[in-house]
């Protein structure tokens, strides 16, 4: 059995167990080597894809370095978001304050790059040294006419979740400042999709074929001017629910825009999302076009899925991702290719999602919140996983143990959303699980030996 | 920098308090933060778990950055300082963290490094460690878990670069363990930031002269390990505690590179000061001239001649230089990255006939240009040195200098791509190719690999640009 630190005991459970209730949304246990990042990371993740804004990290250099162009969030136009801007605070700023450095940096960058807006991310020490970031932002906005928006993302505030909230607050500062003239009734905003590997373009294409217009993308391939008029849309689609549900709720409250939680991963959830949109607009034509689209796309995808399934039937998968809502879609998508989930966990999941996962998964599936390498590696061995789905930090755990891997994180270069994404996912999983290299991994060599004995 | 300044003597090019950068914000930095360097260094000591006293994000970001280079698990613990700890102090977080790491990893030592946050709120980690070790109030008394060795390095990102953090961590491990004793025949070797393959080669070189080698740190196993059947939370490998203890009475210390922000003391300097171990500082052995300095020193320390296989390795490198020199002549390169690495690369370029027209770094020792001038007087007046620089500046200079090739880490890719020239990937990080941990840079052997890659990249560029499609170059 896997050893779990006493302080984390209630963050691990098994589906079908007497106490499926899980403890989550709490500060990481010190010394646990959590896979989580910080508040700054949460804000940076949500706002980063806005391509025509300057994203200025106010702090010493590290925070800006580690978030420089590491995600596959694509833009169809400007690419300012791919640059890493930092006030690069030095000792003298820590002693005497960094406000002047921030103001000068903002003025310099706005002069050089002519952005539509500037986001200023506070890092750990900014609050501590007492810089008044909102005041500087206000001053520079007044001088330049460019909205400068403070993002209160000091890392120590908590996990990514608090950073999501700070980002949503920053977005709310922009929303409602644009002209909504000409926006049709059948229109949506896409929230919490970051256009990784061009995924939002796939979704936009579906919506176009259905006859639904997209007003603003928050924030994949996002533009400041679109976001400013997002309050004119008829419906908010919330894809990454962990990061942007709060924004949807705020927009509902302030502008009366209803929202739907959707997932674009897997055939079931993708089709379900499109039908939910069609039903929302209560337009028989949209519904008819949606039916046609879903039938056409599924017909294209299923052959790939069934082909991959032949080799994957009965294989075992482990999932550890950022948010728990996505994990639900992954469990379903894995089922579609014949795979059983033996471990599912996330960095910042919610009680409701974990409860749903507990019902969804086969009895005995390990469910874990805010895990770490020691636990995950042990869970992988215990569950005899053939595949691990996660991000960069999970990959070496899988490989070290001779387990196949599928990157489902923000660095991915392969679109996994939409029907085509399901086909990509099936191929990706198949390619890794069925690779001949595993025959050399000691884990397999040992099991082979024991079979022979 | 105007063309006039480009011809300025190297001795006048270092950034001084009087000669600061011309801009305010940093765009696409050419350095990493101090805690990253500390974590990397700690990982090179056997049984040591790196531990950052700060917010959770620092350790996670650094893990991801290093994992992407080394393709190995990289566990860095965090005290996960939150809002209340920021206000009331993080001591209980540190204590809980140390206890938990001890339970899970059973380390010999926990290598603690500070972060911007905990330095700024004034955490006195040294005092906390003393209290952790207290027989009545300490961790063992309270939890029943034996307290491992605890070391601490100050590494606030605003004070320096990853190279400074690396050297600070090495120094603190040495300070905590090194012991006096009868002078032995071992040599302390402080390699600086290099690849796992480099570390293996350095050990081989020193032992080829019959010398024992305390290589500090040595992450060649932990960050370039084998696939296993059962996961090791704390993988084997690294400089042993006994080796670090023996460093206090070694025959000599050799530091390769060691260009650090003023005020950062090197482990070799500390050993000299405390135990009078003679300290030799050499440039990173890249290229024949700089490697000769290293092998000559090994010869002096051992009293042995260069072993035959190494003589041949050197000879083959000379042969290769001659075979390839026509592809190098009149070519211009930009070399960028860590100060120690670019010092070696500049010298290597110079000796094969490539002019390193721009030598750029995010480091700020303030000595880089003078060091390059000292090692390569022939470059004086021909090259520009950019310290405390970023990729916005490097790209701007590159557009004017029109180099034929860039040599540096993977963050230079965009610049090279825009210029339409090859990038030969060296140093840290290499995030867009496999094998960053296996790239060889040091010694005749590393130089051989580097030379082949550089020359082949130049040949390939010429071949690809040619409308003819020569298959015979």
TrEMBL record, chain A:
Domain Nitrogenase/oxidoreductase component: 38-431
Keywords: Nitrogen fixation
SUPFAM superfamilies named in the record: Helical backbone' metal receptor (SSF53807)
GO BP annotation list: protein-containing complex assembly
InterPro entries, alphabetized: Nase/OxRdtase_comp1, Nase_comp1_CS, NifE, NifE-like
One of the record's GO molecular function terms: nitrogenase activity
Annotated pathway: Cofactor biosynthesis; Fe-Mo cofactor biosynthesis
Gene3D superfamilies: Nitrogenase MoFe cofactor biosynthesis protein NifE, C-terminal, Nitrogenase molybdenum iron protein domain
Role summary: This protein may play a role in the biosynthesis of the prosthetic group of nitrogenase (FeMo cofactor).
Entry similarity comment: Belongs to the NifD/NifK/NifE/NifN family.
Protein name, entry field: Nitrogenase iron-molybdenum cofactor biosynthesis protein NifE
Species this protein is from: Propionibacterium cyclohexanicum
Automatic annotation (TrEMBL), chain B:
Keywords: Nitrogen fixation
Record's keyword annotation contains Ubl conjugation: no
UniProt family annotation: Belongs to the NifD/NifK/NifE/NifN family.
InterPro entries, per database record: ChlB/BchB/BchZ, Nase/OxRdtase_comp1, Nase_comp1_CS
Keyword Hydrolase set for record: no
SUPFAM superfamilies named in the record: Helical backbone' metal receptor
Coiled coil: none
PROSITE patterns, sorted: NITROGENASE_1_1
Gene3D superfamilies: Nitrogenase molybdenum iron protein domain, Nitrogenase Molybdenum-iron Protein, subunit B, domain 4
A Pfam family hit: Oxidored_nitro
Positions of the Nitrogenase/oxidoreductase component domain: 33-458
GO MF term list: nitrogenase activity
Protein name, as recorded: Nitrogenase molybdenum-iron protein NifN
Species this protein is from: Propionibacterium cyclohexanicum
């Amino acid at each position: 059995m896997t050893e779990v630190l006493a302080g984390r005991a209630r963050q691990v459970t098994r589906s079908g167990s007497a106490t499926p209730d899980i403890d989550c949304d709490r500060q990481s246990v010190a010394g646990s080597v959590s896979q989580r990042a910080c508040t700054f990371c949460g804000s940076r993740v949500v706002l980063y894809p806005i391509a025509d804004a300057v994203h200025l990290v106010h702090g010493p250099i590290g925070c800006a370095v580690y978030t420089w162009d590491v995600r596959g969030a694509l833009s169809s136009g400007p690419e300012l978001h791919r640059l890493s801007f930092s006030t690069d605070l030095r000792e003298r700023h820590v002693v005497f304050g960094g406000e002047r450095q921030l103001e000068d940096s903002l003025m310099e960058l706005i002069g050089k790059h002519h952005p539509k807006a500037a986001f200023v991310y506070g890092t750990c020490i900014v609050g501590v040294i007492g810089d008044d970031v909102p005041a500087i932002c206000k001053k520079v906005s007044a001088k330049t006419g460019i909205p400068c928006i403070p993002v209160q993302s000091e890392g120590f505030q908590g996990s990514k979740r608090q950073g999501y909230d700070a980002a949503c607050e920053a977005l709310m500062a922009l929303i409602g400042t644009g002209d909504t003239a000409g926006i049709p009734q059948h229109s949506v905003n896409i929230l919490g999709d970051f256009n990784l590997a061009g995924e939002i373009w796939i979704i936009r294409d579906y919506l176009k074929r259905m006859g639904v217009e997209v007003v603003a993308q928050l924030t994949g391939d996002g533009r400041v001017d679109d976001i400013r008029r997002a309050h004119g849309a008829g419906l908010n689609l919330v894809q990454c629910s962990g990061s942007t549900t709060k924004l949807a709720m705020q927009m509902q409250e302030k502008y009366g825009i209803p929202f739907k939680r959707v997932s674009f991963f897997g055939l079931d959830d993708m089709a379900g999302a499109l039908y939910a949109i069609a039903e929302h607009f209560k337009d028989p034509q949209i519904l008819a076009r949606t039916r046609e689209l879903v039938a056409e796309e599924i017909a294209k995808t299923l052959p790939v899925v069934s082909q991959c399934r032949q080799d994957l039937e009965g294989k075992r998968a482990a999932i550890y991702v950022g948010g728990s809502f996505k994990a639900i879609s992954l469990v379903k998508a894995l089922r579609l290719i014949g795979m059983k989930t033996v471990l599912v966990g996330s960095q910042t999941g919610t009680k409701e999602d974990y409860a749903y996962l507990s019902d969804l998964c086969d009895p005995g599936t390990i469910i874990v919140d805010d895990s770490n390498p020691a636990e995950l590696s042990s869970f992988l061995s215990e569950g005899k996983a053939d595949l691990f789905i996660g991000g960069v930090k999970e990959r070496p755990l899988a490989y070290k143990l001779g387990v196949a891997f599928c990157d489902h994180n923000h660095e991915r270069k392969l679109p996994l959303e939409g029907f085509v994404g399901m086909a990509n996912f099936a191929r990706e999983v198949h390619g890794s699980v069925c690779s001949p290299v595993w025959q050399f991994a000691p884990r397999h060599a040992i099991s082979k030996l024991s079979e022979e004995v | 920098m105007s063309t006039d300044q480009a011809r300025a003597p190297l001795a006048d090019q270092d950034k001084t308090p009087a000669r600061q950068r011309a801009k305010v914000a940093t765009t696409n930095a050419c350095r990493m933060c101090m805690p990253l360097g500390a974590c990397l260094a700690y990982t090179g000591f056997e049984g040591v778990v790196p531990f950052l006293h700060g917010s959770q994000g620092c350790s996670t970001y650094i893990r991801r950055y290093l994992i992407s280079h080394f393709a190995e698990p990289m566990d860095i613990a965090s005290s996960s300082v939150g809002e209340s700890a920021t206000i009331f102090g993080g001591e209980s977080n540190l204590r809980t963290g140390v206890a938990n790491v001890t339970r899970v990893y059973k380390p010999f030592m926990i290598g603690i490094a500070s972060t911007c946050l905990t330095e700024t709120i004034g955490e006195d980690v040294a005092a906390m460690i003393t209290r952790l070790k207290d027989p009545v109030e300490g961790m063992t008394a309270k939890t029943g878990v034996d307290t491992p060795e605890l070391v601490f390095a100050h590494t606030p990102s605003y004070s320096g670069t990853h190279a400074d953090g690396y050297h600070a961590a090495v120094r603190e491990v040495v300070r905590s363990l090194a012991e006096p004793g009868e002078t032995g025949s071992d040599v302390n070797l402080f390699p600086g930031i290099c690849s796992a393959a480099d570390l293996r080669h350095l050990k081989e070189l020193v032992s080829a002269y019959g010398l024992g080698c305390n290589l500090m740190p040595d992450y060649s196993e932990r960050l370039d390990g084998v696939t296993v059947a059962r996961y090791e939370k704390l993988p084997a490998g690294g400089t042993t505690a006994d080796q670090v203890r023996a460093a206090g009475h070694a025959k000599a210390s050799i530091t390769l590179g060691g260009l650090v922000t003023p005020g950062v003391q090197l482990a070799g300097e500390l050993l000299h000061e405390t135990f009078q171990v003679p300290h030799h500082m050499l440039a990173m052995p890249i290229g024949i001239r700089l490697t000769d300095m290293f092998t000559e020193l090994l010869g002096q320390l051992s009293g042995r001649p260069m072993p035959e296989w190494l003589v041949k390795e050197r000879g083959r490198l000379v042969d290769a230089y001659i075979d390839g020199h026509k592809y190098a002549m009149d070519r211009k390169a930009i070399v960028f990255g860590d100060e120690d690495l670019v010092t070696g690369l500049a010298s290597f370029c110079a000796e094969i006939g490539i002019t390193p027209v721009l030598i750029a770094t995010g480091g700020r020792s303030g000595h880089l240009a003078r060091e390059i001038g000292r090692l390569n007087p022939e470059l004086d007046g021909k090259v520009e040195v950019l310290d405390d620089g970023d990729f916005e500046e490097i790209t701007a200079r590159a557009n004017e200098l029109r180099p034929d090739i860039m040599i540096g880490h993977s963050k230079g890719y965009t610049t090279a791509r825009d210029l339409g020239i090859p990038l030969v990937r060296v140093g840290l990080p290499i995030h867009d190719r496999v094998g960053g941990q296996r790239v060889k840079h040091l010694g005749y052997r590393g130089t051989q690999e580097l030379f082949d890659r550089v020359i082949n990249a130049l040949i390939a560029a010429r071949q690809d640009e040619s409308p003819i499609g020569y298959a015979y170059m």
